[in-house]
Design brief:
The complex is a heterodimer.
Chain A (H helix, E strand, L loop, with lengths): L1 H16 L1 H6 L7 H12 L1 H4 L15 H4 L19 H7 L18 H12 L28 H13 L9 H13 L5 H9 L3 H13 L1 H14 L17 H13 L4 H10 L15 H5 L15 H21 L18 H12 L1 E7 L5 H27 L4 H7 L7 E2 L9 E3 L13 E2 L7 E2 L5 E2 L9 E4 L3 E2 L4 E17 L16 E16 L7 E8 L4 E9 L10 E2 L9 H20 L5 E7 L5 E4 L7 E5 L5 H16 L15 H8 L5 H16 L20 H14 L2 H9 L13 H6 L12 E2 L2 H12 L50 H5 L18 H9 L1 H15 L5 H13 L5 H11 L5 H13 L1 H4 E2 L1
Helix pairs in contact in A: 3-7, 9-11, 12-13, 14-22, 16-17, 18-20, 23-24, 23-25, 27-30, 29-30, 30-31, 30-33, 31-32
Chain B lengths: L1 H17 L3 H14 L17 E6 L6 H4 L5 H5 L16 E4 L6 E4 L4 E4 L12 E8 L5 H10 L9 H8 L10 E4 L2 E2 L20 E3 L15 H22 L3 H24 L6 H7 L6 H18 L4 E4 L1 E2 L12 H25 L6 E6 L3 E7 L3 E5 L3 E6 L7 E3 L1 E2 L6 E3 L2 E2 H12 L7 E4 L2 E4 L14
Parallel strand pairs in B: 1-9, 1-11, 5-15, 5-18, 6-8, 6-9
Antiparallel strand pairs in B: 2-12, 3-4, 5-14, 7-10, 11-14, 12-13, 16-17, 19-20
The chains are: A alpha+beta, B alpha/beta.
Chain lengths: 952, 466
C-alpha cells in the first residue's frame, strides 16, 4: 500500500512536470491532429476507421459526420459538447468486460490520460481537422527574438522554449561545434586547418566560411548520399537464395553523389528519380552521360526471388516494394499499407495504391546505353545518310544480281497470321532504343554495307541491328501482350546477341532460368535464318513483352514474330543467301565516299556504358487485388498518381498555383504515367514533398527529426515537435530548393551549437532527450563515420571518385549460398564505407553492429542501438587493431617527445587540443621509453574511448 | 510521439522513484536501446510462461512428411503409377509418378505415434512429441518459405522469431547473447537475414555461434587479457575526463556499460563452447563420438543448445549440419539423402530431449522441429521429391506442449492438409503463447503499422498445449 501511494505521488508529480501535461490543463481543447487522432488511430480505427472491410458494427470514427450520427433512441458515438452522452466514452469506461472497448481479447485498455484527452476533446465540441501533414504549408513569419537567436530558424526555437519555460543550454565551444559540423556535413573529422582557423578566431564569419568549404567538399555529397541510400534501400545484390549481383547498381549510387555535390534542386532530384528517362536531358559535363537515365535505377534495387512458382505474385511483391519506397521516400506516406485494403489510418485508398501499381507495371527494367555527349546518336544519324547514299549507285548492280522483285521476296518470307513483321516502314509498334536498329527496318532488296564492308543485298526484310554498323548497340522491345498461346516463334539470325521474353516483368531468369528455361535465347547463327521457339505454355494468361538485344560486338536480325500454331515449313532453317555484289569500276568509285564514311563512323563510335534504368512499357492499368492477392483481381483502376494527392493539390491549388509557373499537365504525356507522377510530386503546392524533405535535412543535421518518424507523416507517425518551424523550413526549401542551403542554415544555428549537458536537473528532466531543443545531447556517429574516422586517423583513408564497389569483406561467420569465392580486403582498400559492396546476404559485420540498416525497406531514421557487439568489434576486429597500428606509426612520425606526440594524436582523433590530464594519462600508460607496442596499445585504447564514436 | 511520450513518463516515474541521478538515466538508456526509438509496446512477458526458453531445430530444405512422421500406406498402392490427384505447380515442374516412402513406420511409445525407421533414437521419445501433421505454408520457394517460417513474412527484412523473443524480454544484461544460432555449417537459403532483427534494434539479431573454435565473431582478444584490461582502463579514464569536460550524458554512460559487457563476453563465450566439463556419458549419448561426422557436429550443436538454455538464453536455433547432400532438399536420390540427414540429427535430438528431461529443464524448454515446407508424394524425376507447402509435419516437445499427441492430418496421399489445417502463423502464435506472450500484443511500430511476428494472422492452437 505504501509503495502504491508513493507511485501515485510520483505520477502526480510527473504529470504536472511533463511538457505535454503542462499544456494539457491550460483549458485549451486537445488538438485533433496531435493528441486525439493518434489515440483513435492506435486504439479504434482498426475496426472503426476508413477501411470498410474490417469495420465492425458499421461504426466509423474517422469522419465526424459518421461519428456524431445517432441511431434512433441511442446515444451517438460522439456527442459534441456532451461527454456523458457519447457512446464511445460509455463503452471505454464500462465496467462490464463484454461491453468495454477496446475488446479485452488482446487489446490494452485506454490509459486514464487518453480517456481524459478524449473527454475534453468531446467537451470542447469534438472538432475534426485534416491530418496535420496533409494541410497546406503555413507561411509563417519567425517570431521576434529577445536576443538569443542567431538565425531566423532559431527564433522559432527561442519562442517555443520561452513558452514552455525552458532555458536554452549554453553554447558549445568552437572545436566542439567544428567537429559536430564536420561530421554532420561530411561524415568525417574536420581538417586540421579548419581547427586552426577556429582556434585562431571563432566568429560567425569563420564558421560560415568553413561551412561553405565543407559543403563544397565532395565528402559532403558522399556522406549525404549514404543517407539517401538508406531511404532507397540501396544494395548491390538481390539477397534470397543465391544473392545474385545487381549489375551496375553503383552507377545509381554515384548519381546520388554527383547530384548532391552539384546541388541539384530538390524538385529536379525527385523528378529525375521518378522519371528521369522522360525529362529533358541533363548531361553530366564530365562524361556527357544522361543523368536522368541513371537516376531511375533505384526502381530496380529490390530483393528478388529466382524461380517463383507464382510469377504474378512475385510481380506484386516487386512492385509493392517500389511503391513502399516511393511513398515513404518522397511523401513520408505509407502508401503500401493500402495494398490489401484502404489505409486504416491515412487518406490513402486501395485505389490509390492500385493507380501507382499501374504506373509501376507499365514501366520496364532495362539496361540502357549511355551516349557520351550524344556522339553515338550523331554518328548513327550520319550513317543513315551514308546508307541512303549507297542505294542509288548500287541499284543497277543489285538488279542484275537477282532478277526477282524485292516485294515478292518479302511476301514469300512471312508466314500467314504472323503477330509482327519487320518488313514495313516502321518497327510495328516495337520500341527501338540505343540506336543500332536505325530509324526503320531494312527492306527486302535493300543494299547494306555495315561498317563500310563489301555491299550486299538483304534478301529478307528485317529489323537489323547492323543496318548502319555492326558495332552499334541497341535493343528492340515489343508492346506488352497477354500470352494466349504457349508457343512463341521468332525468325532470327545473328551472333553475340540475344532474344528474351519477360513474363510479368520478371527478370531474374537472366541469373537462373529454372521455370523460364527457354525465355532467353542466345543468338549465334549469323549465316542461317532460324525459327526460335520460346515455350510460354506455363504462362498462358500472363503479360509478356519481348526484347532483342545487341550489346555491341554482335548483331541480330529479326524478320517476324509469330504465336500459336506454325506450319513446319516456317520452322525450317534457311541459309542467308547474301552475296557480295560484283561491282564495275564506276560504281566502285561512286561508292567510295559513302563506304569510307560508314567505316569511319564505326571506328569513331564511343564506348557506351550500360546503366540500369527505366523505359516506358505499354500502358497497363492494374486491377484491384482483393486482400493484395493477385489471385483475386477485381476491376482495373486508371494508373497515375494517387487520387488523394490530386485532391490535396486541388484543395488549395488556386492560391498557390497562381504563383507557380508549373501548371499540372492535363493530358497524359507518358504511357506509364510516371512523368505525371513526377510532376505531382514536385508541385509547389504539395504539402508532403517539402515537409518530408525539410525534415530529413533537420534529422541529418540535428540528429533527430522534428518529425521523429521521418518516413511516416501519417496518423501513426509522430507529430512535429515544432510545427511552425517545420513549415517555415519547408517553405524555405520550396523557395530555394537547395538541400545544401538548408543544411547550412541549420549548422550555423544556435540550436545546433547548444551544449548537451545542463546543470539544472529539472531542465534535464523536462527535456531528457533534447526533443524540446533546450539542449543537444551527445550523438553517436553513424556506422560509416565510425569506420571512416578510424581510417582517417590512421592515415589510410583513400579518396575515390566512385565506380564499382570494393568487394565485401567476409569473415568465417558469414556463410551461406552466394558467398563470393574470396573476401574483399580487410580494410576495404581504405575506401569510405559508402564505396564498400552492399551484399544483402553478407552485410558487413562491423557496419551492421553500428546499425547500418538492412537494405529492404526505406530507413530515413536509423536505429541507434547500444550492444556488446560494438564493443567486441572495436576491441577485436583485426581491421580496427590494424588501423590502430597505422595510427601508432603516424604518431611515431610526429615531431617531439612522447607528450607532444600524444597531444598530436588526441588532436587528430578528437579534433581539439589535448587536455593536461589526458597527457598525464598518456605518460602513465606509455612509461618512460615507449616502444611501438606501447604506442599501438595506447592508440587502440583511444579508439575504445567513447569520444571516438560520440560527438559530445 | 505516442510511444515516446509513454516512455518518457515511465522513465520519469523511475527517476522520481529512485531519485534523479546517473543510475536512473542509465536504466533509461538500457530500456530504450532494448526497445528502439519508436517502440510502443511495453516489454516483458504478458503472462506466466510455461517455457522459459525455446530450442528451434530447423530442418532446412524440407523433410518429406510421408518419410518421417506422417505414414501413408496408400501411396504403396499407387507407387510408380500416375499420381491419382491434381498436381499443383511445383518448383522444378518435372513431376514423375507416385512415390511411396522407402521407409517403414511403426507405432512408438505408449502413445503409439507412428514414426518412420529413419528415427530409431527419436522413436524412444515419442511420448514427448506433439506431432502436427497438418502444417501449411504459402510459399514454394526456399527463400520465401524460409523467411516466412522465421519471420512470418515471405520477404527479407523482418525480425526473426528469436529476435522477437529477445526483444520481448526487454532488458537483457547477461554476458551471453539472447538469441543464438548454433551453426552446423548450413546457413539456410536467404542467408543471415533469416535470423535478423529487421526493424527491431540491432541487438536483437542472432549471434552466430560455431560449435567449434572461438564460437563468435570478434570474441577472441587480439592482445593478452591483462594488456587489454589496461587499455580499457585507459579508455574509461578518458571517458571520465570527457564527463568532466562535457557533462554527464546518458547515452555515453550506457555505451560504457556495454563496452564492459563486451569485455566479459570474451570470457563467457569460450567457456560455453568448451565442452570439457561434460561427462563422457553425456557426450556419448549425444553422439559427440559417433563415427559419422555430421552426427558429431549436430551432437555438439544440441549439447551447446542445452548449455545455452541452462545459462538462461531464451532462444536458440540450430541450423543443419552438412551431410554432403543439399540439406533435406532431396530433389533426387531421396533414399540416400534423407537417410544421411536423419542419421545426423536423430541421435543428438533424442539425447537432447532426454538430457533436458533428466535435468528438469524439459518442462520449461520448448523444443520445435520444423522445415520450411514438406515434400511431394509424387516423384521429381525418378527418385526425388519436389517442394510441398500444402501439408507437412512439424513437432513440438516440452515447454508446455502436449506430449504423445498427434494433431491434424493430410489426405491419404500425404499431399494436402485436410484435418486441423494450420498455418505457420499458428505455430508462431502458439510458441509465443507458451513462452509468455500474446502474439497480438508483442508488436513494434514501424512504417506506420504495429508489426507483429504473426502479421495480422495466427491463433494459439489449444490442442497442442498440455
Amino acid at each position: 500500500m505504501r509503495a502504491l501511494r508513493t507511485s501515485f505521488a510520483a505520477l502526480a508529480l510527473c504529470v504536472a512536470g511533463l511538457p505535454g501535461a503542462a499544456t494539457a490543463n491550460d483549458g485549451r481543447a486537445p488538438s485533433w491532429s496531435r493528441e486525439v487522432a493518434p489515440i483513435l488511430a492506435a486504439r479504434c480505427f482498426t475496426c472503426h476507421g476508413p477501411d470498410p472491410d474490417s469495420r465492425k458494427a458499421g461504426l466509423r470514427l474517422d469522419r465526424r459526420e459518421d461519428a456524431v450520427r445517432a441511431e434512433e433512441g441511442l446515444d451517438p458515438a460522439v456527442a459534441p459538447g456532451d461527454p456523458a452522452r457519447s457512446a464511445i466514452l460509455q463503452r471505454i469506461l464500462s465496467a462490464d468486460p463484454d461491453e468495454r472497448m477496446p475488446p479485452s481479447d488482446g487489446h490494452e485498455p485506454l490509459t486514464a490520460g487518453e480517456i481524459e484527452t478524449l473527454r475534453r476533446w468531446i467537451e470542447a465540441g469534438a472538432v475534426y481537422e485534416r491530418h496535420w501533414s496533409w494541410t497546406r504549408l503555413a507561411e509563417v513569419e519567425p517570431p521576434a527574438s529577445r536576443g538569443w537567436a542567431w538565425t531566423e530558424g532559431d527564433r522559432f526555437v527561442e519562442d517555443a522554449l520561452a513558452r514552455e519555460g525552458l532555458a536554452p543550454a549554453g553554447d558549445c565551444d568552437g572545436p566542439t561545434w567544428l567537429r559536430r559540423a564536420s561530421f554532420a556535413l561530411r561524415g568525417l573529422p574536420p581538417r586540421d586547418e579548419w581547427l586552426q582557423a577556429i582556434l585562431r578566431r571563432d566568429e560567425m564569419g569563420t564558421r560560415e566560411r568553413l561551412v561553405d568549404e565543407m559543403l563544397a567538399d565532395r565528402a559532403h555529397a558522399e556522406h549525404w548520399a549514404r543517407h539517401w541510400l538508406d531511404v532507397m534501400r540501396y544494395a548491390e545484390t538481390r539477397g534470397h537464395e543465391f544473392d545474385y549481383a545487381i549489375r551496375e547498381a553503383w552507377r545509381w549510387r554515384d548519381w546520388v553523389v554527383r547530384a548532391l555535390h552539384a546541388g541539384l534542386p530538390y524538385d529536379r532530384f525527385v523528378a529525375e528519380q521518378v522519371a528521369g528517362d522522360l525529362l529533358e536531358r541533363r548531361v553530366d559535363p564530365a562524361t556527357g552521360h544522361d543523368e536522368g537515365l541513371v537516376a531511375t535505377g533505384w526502381w530496380w534495387l529490390s530483393q528478388g526471388t529466382h524461380a517463383p512458382v507464382d510469377v504474378r505474385l512475385d510481380e506484386a511483391e516487386r512492385i509493392d516494394n517500389q511503391i513502399e519506397v516511393l511513398g515513404k521516400a518522397f511523401l513520408g506516406t505509407t502508401v503500401s499499407c493500402a495494398r490489401c485494403h484502404d489505409h486504416k489510418f491515412d487518406d490513402v485508398s486501395q485505389r490509390d495504391y492500385t493507380a501507382l501499381f499501374g504506373v509501376a507495371r507499365s514501366t520496364r527494367r532495362v539496361y540502357a546505353w549511355q551516349d557520351p555527349h550524344g556522339r553515338a546518336a550523331r554518328l548513327l544519324e550520319d550513317a543513315e545518310e551514308a546508307r541512303a547514299a549507297l542505294q542509288a549507285p548500287l541499284a543497277p548492280a543489285a538488279a542484275s544480281a537477282d532478277g526477282a522483285a524485292p516485294e515478292s521476296i518479302s511476301s514469300a518470307t512471312t508466314p500467314p497470321g504472323v503477330a509482327w513483321r519487320f518488313d514495313g516502314p516502321d518497327f510495328a509498334g516495337w520500341r527501338a532504343s540505343g540506336g543500332a536498329f536505325g530509324s526503320r527496318p531494312v527492306r527486302a532488296g535493300e543494299l547494306l554495307a555495315p561498317d563500310g564492308s563489301a555491299p550486299a543485298r538483304a534478301l529478307v526484310g528485317s529489323a537489323s541491328s547492323r543496318a548502319l554498323s555492326a558495332k552499334a548497340r541497341g535493343a528492340l522491345r515489343s508492346p506488352t501482350f497477354v500470352v494466349e498461346s504457349g508457343d512463341l516463334w521468332l525468325r532470327v539470325r545473328g551472333h553475340g546477341a540475344h532474344a528474351r521474353a519477360h513474363v510479368d516483368g520478371y527478370f531474374l531468369d537472366e541469373e537462373n532460368n529454372l521455370l523460364f528455361e527457354s525465355h532467353k535465347q542466345d543468338l549465334d547463327h549469323p549465316d542461317e535464318w532460324r525459327t526460335r521457339h520460346v515455350d510460354l505454355s506455363r504462362y498462358v494468361g500472363e503479360e509478356c513483352w519481348l526484347e532483342l538485344v545487341d550489346p555491341g560486338d554482335g548483331w541480330l536480325e529479326v524478320a517476324w514474330v509469330a504465336t500459336g500454331e506454325l506450319a513446319d515449313e516456317w520452322k525450317a532453317a534457311a541459309p542467308a543467301l547474301e552475296r557480295p555484289l560484283a561491282l564495275d569500276e564506276a560504281t566502285r568509285l561512286a561508292l567510295d565516299e559513302p563506304l569510307s564514311r560508314l567505316a569511319r563512323l564505326a571506328r569513331d563510335l564511343p564506348e557506351q556504358p550500360v546503366v540500369l534504368a527505366c523505359e516506358e512499357g505499354s500502358g497497363r492499368d492494374a486491377p484491384l487485388y482483393a486482400r493484395g492477392r493477385p489471385a483475386s483481381a477485381k476491376a482495373s483502376v486508371p494508373r497515375g498518381a494517387p487520387e488523394s494527392m490530386g485532391t490535396l493539390r486541388r484543395d488549395y491549388a488556386a492560391e498557390v498555383l497562381a504563383a507557380s509557373s508549373a501548371p499540372a499537365a492535363a493530358a497524359r504525356a507518358s504511357d506509364s504515367g510516371r512523368l505525371e507522377l513526377a510532376r505531382e510530386l514536385v508541385d509547389p503546392a504539395h504539402p508532403l514533398t517539402w515537409r518530408v524533405a525539410a525534415n530529413r535535412v533537420w534529422h541529418h543535421v540535428m540528429g533527430s527529426g522534428l518529425v521523429a518518424t521521418t518516413d511516416d507523416f501519417g496518423v501513426l507517425g509522430t507529430p512535429p515537435t515544432h510545427p511552425e518551424l517545420l513549415d517555415w523550413l519547408a517553405c524555405r526549401l520550396r523557395e530555394h530548393r537547395s538541400l545544401k542551403q538548408l543544411a547550412k542554415e541549420l549548422v550555423l544555428s544556435r540550436t545546433f551549437a547548444q551544449r548537451g549537458a545542463v546543470d539544472d536537473a529539472e531542465a534535464l528532466e523536462r527535456d531528457p532527450r533534447g526533443a524540446r531543443l533546450s539542449r543537444r545531447p551527445a550523438r553517436r556517429l553513424p556506422a560509416e563515420s565510425v569506420r571512416d574516422s578510424l581510417l582517417a586517423a590512421s592515415g589510410r583513408l583513400v579518396e575515390r571518385e566512385g565506380g564499382p564497389p570494393v568487394a565485401a569483406r567476409l569473415t568465417d561467420f558469414m556463410q551461406g549460398r552466394g558467398r563470393p569465392g574470396a573476401s574483399g580486403p580487410e580494410d576495404g582498400a581504405g575506401a569510405r564505407s559508402l564505396h564498400l559492396e552492399v551484399r544483402r546476404n553478407f552485410l558487413d559485420p562491423f557496419l551492421a553492429a553500428f546499425d547500418q540498416p538492412i537494405p529492404n525497406s526505406p530507413r530515413g531514421a536509423r536505429n541507434v542501438s547500444n550492444v556488446p557487439a560494438q564493443g567486441l568489434a572495436l576491441m577485436n576486429d583485426p581491421m580496427v587493431r590494424d588501423l590502430a597500428a597505422s595510427f601508432a606509426r603516424w604518431i611515431l612520425a610526429q615531431e617531439g617527445d612522447a607528450e607532444a606526440r600524444a597531444a598530436a594524436a588526441i588532436r587528430r582523433l578528437w579534433s581539439r587540443p589535448a587536455r593536461t590530464d589526458e597527457l598525464a594519462l598518456a605518460k602513465e600508460f606509455l612509461g618512460a621509453a615507449p616502444d611501438f607496442e606501447a604506442w599501438h596499445d595506447w592508440a587502440h585504447a583511444l579508439f575504445l574511448a567513447q569520444e571516438t564514436i560520440y560527438l559530445p | 510521439m505516442n510511444g515516446a511520450r509513454g516512455m518518457d513518463r515511465r522513465d520519469l516515474l523511475r527517476m522520481a522513484a529512485c531519485g534523479f541521478g546517473a543510475a536512473a538515466f542509465s536504466a533509461l538508456l538500457h530500456a530504450r536501446s532494448a526497445r528502439g526509438a519508436a517502440g510502443a509496446t511495453p516489454l516483458g512477458r504478458h503472462h506466466q510462461a510455461k517455457a522459459r526458453a525455446c530450442i528451434f531445430l530447423y530442418m532446412d530444405g524440407g523433410p518429406g512428411q510421408m518419410d518421417t512422421f506422417d505414414p501413408k500406406p496408400a501411396l504403396r498402392r499407387w507407387h510408380g503409377e500416375p499420381f491419382p490427384a491434381r498436381m499443383e505447380a511445383t518448383q522444378f515442374a518435372s513431376n514423375g509418378t507416385t512415390f511411396a516412402s522407402p521407409w517403414d513406420f511403426a507405432p512408438r511409445g505408449a502413445s503409439g505415434i507412428e514414426i518412420s525407421a529413419l528415427f530409431p533414437h527419436l522413436a524412444t521419445q515419442a511420448d514427448r512429441l506433439c506431432v502436427v501433421r497438418s502444417m501449411t505454408s504459402p510459399f514454394n520457394e526456399h527463400t520465401n518459405a524460409n523467411y516466412f517460417l522465421h519471420t512470418g513474412v515471405g520477404i527479407a527484412g523482418r525480425p526473426s522469431m528469436g529476435a522477437w523473443v529477445r526483444h520481448g524480454l526487454g532488458d537483457w544484461s547477461s554476458d551471453l547473447p539472447g538469441f543464438v544460432v548454433v551453426d552446423g555449417g548450413l546457413i539456410p537459403p536467404g542467408g543471415l537475414e533469416c535470423f535478423g532483427s529487421g526493424f527491431l534494434p540491432a541487438g536483437n539479431q542472432a549471434t552466430i555461434l560455431k560449435p567449434r573454435g572461438p564460437g563468435v565473431a570478434f570474441v577472441e582478444p587480439l592482445v593478452p587479457a591483462a594488456r587489454q584490461r589496461r587499455m580499457l582502463d585507459l579508455a574509461r579514464a578518458h571517458d571520465g575526463l570527457l564527463r568532466e569536460a562535457s557533462g554527464f550524458d546518458a547515452a555515453i554512460e550506457a555505451a560504457i556499460d556495454n563496452a564492459e559487457q563486451a569485455f566479459r563476453m570474451q570470457a563467457a563465450l569460450p567457456e560455453l563452447v568448451r565442452l570439457d566439463d561434460e561427462s563422457d556419458a553425456t557426450r556419448r549419448a549425444y553422439g559427440c563420438e559417433d563415427e559419422y561426422e555430421p552426427t558429431r557436429t549436430y551432437a555438439r550443436q544440441c549439447l551447446l543448445a542445452r548449455r545455452l538454455v541452462e545459462r538462461g538464453v531464451p532462444f536458440v536455433e540450430l541450423s543443419m549440419a552438412s551431410t554432403g547432400h543439399d540439406r533435406w532438399d532431396q530433389h533426387s536420390d531421396l533414399q540416400q539423402g534423407h537417410a544421411d540427414n536423419a542419421r545426423a540429427v536423430d541421435k543428438p535430438i533424442a539425447a537432447l530431449l532426454q538430457d533436458l528431461h533428466q535435468r528438469g529443464l524439459l518442462d520449461s524448454t520448448l523444443v520445435v522441429w520444423a522445415g520450411e515446407f514438406g515434400r511431394t508424394p509424387f516423384a521429381q524425376g525418378s527418385n526425388g521429391r519436389d517442394h510441398n507447402p500444402h501439408g507437412f509435419t512439424v513437432w513440438l516437445a516440452g515447454g508446455g506442449a502436449k506430449g504423445g499427441h498427434v494433431h491434424g492430418a493430410t489426405d491419404e496421399l500425404g499431399y494436402k492438409a485436410i484435418e486441423g489445417a494450420c498455418e505457420l502463423h499458428d505455430l508462431h502464435a502458439t510458441m509465443l503463447h507458451l513462452m509468455g506472450w500474446d502474439h497480438r500484443r508483442l508488436s513494434m511500430r514501424f512504417g506506420g503499422r504495429d508489426m507483429r511476428l504473426t502479421d495480422v494472422h495466427g491463433r494459439v492452437v489449444a490442442d497442442w498445449i498440455a
